[in-house]
Amino acid sequence: MTQPTQYDLYNAIFKQNPYPVYAQMRATAPIVQNTGLTTEQPIWFVVGYTESEAVLRDHRRFVKNYRNSLTAEQRAQLQPLSRLALLLDHHMLNLDGADHMRQRTLVSKAFTTRMVNNMQARVQQIADELLDQVQAKGAMDLIDDYAFPLPIIVIAEMLGIPAADRDRFRAWSDAFVTPSLTEDEWRRAEVLLLEFINYLGAIFAERRRQPRNDLITALLQAEEAGDKLSEEELYGMVVLLIVAGHETTVNLIGNGTLALLTHPEQLARLKADSTLMPNAVEELLRYDGPVERATMRFAAEDVHIGGQLIRRSEPVVVVLGSADRDPAQFGQPDTLDIMRDDSRHLAFGYGIHYCVGAPLARMEGRIAFNTLLQRLPNLRLAGPMEELTWRFNPILRGMHHLPVAWDVSIHQA
To answer: Which of 163-177, 254-268, 364-378, 394-408 has the lowest mean pLDDT?
Structure first.
């Protein structure tokens, strides 16, 4: 086995700006074996663009469900999953083949282009209402006051979650996406996750009694080829939609705003020509995307790729943030250029696990950025870059807070 390298991919300095380290890794090889966060087993980190695309595309040899990389004898020796793990993790992001496609087919109907287009007016209304609350103040925390509430309101309304309960999802979502490294941290997370499950159970029971025109009701009633979602699939799917449906968009809005504010020439160009917004969103996704790494895959057989031999059942992580800064794919990859025409980025993944909510996230991003630039004159950072802190999550890339300020005009209503 190749001796794993020892890049520290988990400290606060790395999280502040991971891209120089990823450049070092790419200079070594397009696939590098390195230690993980909580496991002694080394992980294969795929950092080159070509190799990342190949792994994401090859769902037969790189599987999401660890059990599918094992022999029947090895599977028989595994401990059964806990009830909590079954309810939280049994969703399409962790499934392979027919199991994945069955769930994806059921939920993708909610994210068609037509459905997303029909939601644009409501998303615009939400963005305006959020800025109405802060515009006269001249300052806000962009994460708390805008980037977080906008997508959580959207996904909560799609699912049919009562407005009064939305704020509770922040703590539940944090517990879901933040690694628990100690026994105490796991106990605290477990309490929150059980609350989450119990809350959803009550919502499901209510929708069975009184169906509504929302996504939870649709999933409860869904039938594709005579097959409905099991209880575990239902919980897993709704958890995935709530967490993935807002966490990624929070980071898109936050990271994208920071990128624009630290590149004033790009910001000025975008403000001068709003027709550049769709292209700008793609470049912001590439430059500092909301998902730093794809979720874990496992080699289903021995695979030769990128000059490496990856043995069956070894863990593999595609580093989307590194692939999207690969100079072999993108000219001047560390430069933000909203006019870029080569942005075949991997921010939403690739292959069968390509993000089903990508059309919604793009639309939310376009409206969120456009509304900010139109309504907040001279939008700027309200503190030094060095004071910004990034959330401790190996998969997601986003800030805790982003203080911003703007000029308050007497002409503003």
So the answer is: 163-177
Find, among 260, 264, 303, 300, the residue nearest to 281 by Cα. Answer: 260
Residue where the block lists tokens 């989307």 = 320
Q: Is pTM beyond 0.85 here?
A: yes
State both tokens at 400.
Answer: 């805790």
d(CA 202, CA 197): 9
The DSSP call for residue 164 is: G
Backbone phi and psi for residue 46, each to the nearest 5 degrees, phi listed first? -95, 110
Per-residue tokens: 101:
């496609």
Q: What are phi and psi of 33, to 5 degrees?
A: -90, 130
Give the separation between CA 413 and CA 407, rounded to whole angstroms: 13
CATH classification of 12-405 is 3.40.50.300, yes or no? no
CB atoms within 10 A of CB 78: 10
**Token pair for 382:** 């309200």
Quick one: tokens of 208? 């069975």
> What is the percentage of the chain residues whose pLDDT exceeds 70?
95
Q: How confident is the model over 36-60, as pLDDT tens digits?
A: 876 677 999 999 999 999 999 999 9
Closest by CA to 203, choosing from 215, 190, 191, 192, is 215
Tokens of 19: 């891209």
- Residue 307 reports pLDDT greater than 60: yes
| 167: pLDDT strictly greater than 90 | no
- Amino acid identity of residue 324, one-letter, is D
Average pLDDT score, the chain: 90
Q: What type of residue sits at position 346?
A: L
Q: Let me know if 141 is exposed, middle or buried by CB neighbors in 10 A (0-12, 13-18, 19+).
A: middle
User: CA quadruple 197, 203, 206, 212: dihedral positive or negative?
Assistant: negative
- Tell me the C-alpha distance between 39 and 10, whole Å: 13
